[in-house]
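Q: Entry one of two.
A:
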Amino acid sequence: MALDDIKELISISDDGVKINDVSKMRERMDSLVYEAVFEEDDEKRKALLMLVKEIAKAGGAIPASIQTLYEHMGQDYPGFTVPAMNIRGLSYDVCRAVIRKVKELNVGAFIFEIARSEIGYTKQRPLEYGAVACAAAFREGYEGPVFIQGDHFQLVRKHYSKDPDAETDYMKGLIKEAVEAELYNIDIDASTLVDLDQPTLEEQQRPNFERTAELSQLIRDIQPSGVDISIGGEIGEIGGKNSDPEEMRAYLDGFNEVFKGDKGLSKLSVQSGTSHGGVVLPDGSLAEVSIDFDTLKEMSEASRNEYGLSGAVQHGASTLPDDAFHVFPEVGTSEVHLATGFQNIIYDSKHLSEDFRNEVYDFIKSEFASEKKEGQTDEQFMYKTRKKGFGQIKKKWWDLPSEVKDPIMKELEAKFELLFRELKVINSRKIVDETVKPVLIKKEIPGNLV
């Protein structure tokens, strides 16, 4: 049992966790994380994940809010775009790969994130995701703020239409869970509620900004003392029509009128021509995406100059051509969300055996056959659905031998380096250290680990 192996390496008291031998604890973190993630008893799993996170924090990997960096960006844009990375599978290994490049390239501005939908189909609750991200940082010897984000905490339109209060209450519960798990960056997506049948932009955006303000107020009410959680809003559902400054003003003016808290939004997600996961052609390949960088520039400048936000946020970008990413900082984009591209590297790697890939695909065909849409080719269905191949059979992925996982991580590291260079976050550690002072929030570890 991994817990038995670390009893001499840590001390637990009312003052929290103390690490007695940091180097040995780093070596033992792999087995402790594995035990925590795959413990079958719910309460014991939560306790183990809490212990994992507290050990990582004691070692200097501290969950933090990016709010103060974004406040700085709102006044003086530093010329980089922060990558926000959704890690859907092999999360501990992939987060370690990210951190290796972070350390090598002196990156400070980076975010690990997980969306509401991903929490479900990847089987990663906020506590697990936060613990794994912090553990990976500690394992690789990283000390400093670890920005972990609840991405697309979205009010689902069909659920909301049926019962607005129930859907809002669900989101409030998820926010409370995320904040308790130390996800100190949360993106609220109520853009699904925009009512285009209304005669004015203000009335169209009203359900969006009113619910966003309500959920933002909850966040401010429950955030720990000393922590200002970074809150993002969204005005246009990704995959719809491109956003424009008039929509932005209607949304932000409405939000600022309704919201009564001290600090409001730090950024704003907009639509500029992408879609989540890319547009899949019948043969399973991706169509070229034409992104409207003029929209991004206009929205970033307006949100920064008129409202003091960090700028516009771009979703659905990871499948863009590599030579497109340098444009994001050139047009002042504050943050870009990246997910499917990393998933594609894992699935399409030559180092993943055909037998294992087919095993995963057979599982997807069996479990999710009802999700295949009329007219969709097998290739289109598999590309759109294979994100769901990570969660229910997560242990099989984690149990892949190192001779398979290690070279896949090398492929991912190359992608992370390219992104960090193109988004200009290399050597961003200095400005992060100057603007962000992580607050160590000690959590009590449940006493049921024996």
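Q: Entry two of two.
A:
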Amino acid sequence: MSQDILSDVLRGVRLRGAVFFYVSGHSDWAAEAPPGKDLAPLVMQGLEHVIEYHAVATGSCWAGIPGGPSVQMSAGDVVMFPQGDAHFVASRPGLRGNPDVNWFANAHIEQVPLRIAINGGDIMQSPPPESSADTTIVCGFIGCDLQPFNPLIAALPRLLHLRAEGEGAWMATFAEHAVAESRARRLGGEAMLARMSETMFVDAVRRYVDHLPERSAGWLAGLRDRFVSRALALLHESPARDWSIEELGRRVGMSRSALHDRFVALIGVPPMTYLLQWRMQMASRLLLDTRATVAAIALDVGYESEAAFARAFKREVGQPPATWRRARDAAASLPMEQGPG
């Protein structure tokens, strides 16, 4: 049985990466990004949630959330904002940029990543020689679905800083390869950078889990618990099975009540509620990625009748499955307003 629940969830929420900017910073420089929900229609249409990240290639800088945490970054470091917060990147603390992204929406971009320079607070699409830059950064996005159910994103912090030292040496390699691909602009470079972004994100999550305090709660903490992780693995391996809390407890080696209490303490919901939510996420993926009928999807995710599935889906999502599918298909077919996608 596969115990890799994280991979299962990442597939289920349609994780997708991209690199759009190769940035050089000059003098006292600062850039500011609006919330991810405002960026999503510009950079990753069809996905609900966008996480922005920045990998420092040369030099150093500061990155943080206005009114929230901030960190100093060195060459090879990566910072990401899993909750999609508005944030800044600057040459020193206290500097702020302009969060207006109209220039990006109106840009005529033939190939990504887009090379830009920031001098003070001014953004230029025809940057000066890179050798004159104080700092160079590769910036990109990780997109995924939030609805109906994404247990991972809520379990991550607002700011995640990955240092390029010790076990984080891979981060420096990521920055180096991202810079090389950004400079070379070879065939397939955009796809290469996207896959590298996704790999970097997965590695970041694994490192975060490895350093969680012992008494942490949340979905990621549940992955480290002997009994809860076993229960999660069983539910993810056979989500269409007619599970009961009694059988699940017997399979993991706990009483019904003990498993229920332990699961709720770590995951926040009972096992059967989690199963329902995960079934709806699986169903949403099938609705978007296949042309299977609603009745067929209902059977695939563990419902004996289309009507029962439709009621459950509407309770969780707010719309019947067929209506939700039509709305998402229509949204995905809308043209992008310039900018890469």
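A: Comment on entry two: The mean pLDDT is 86. The first helix runs from residue 5 to 12.
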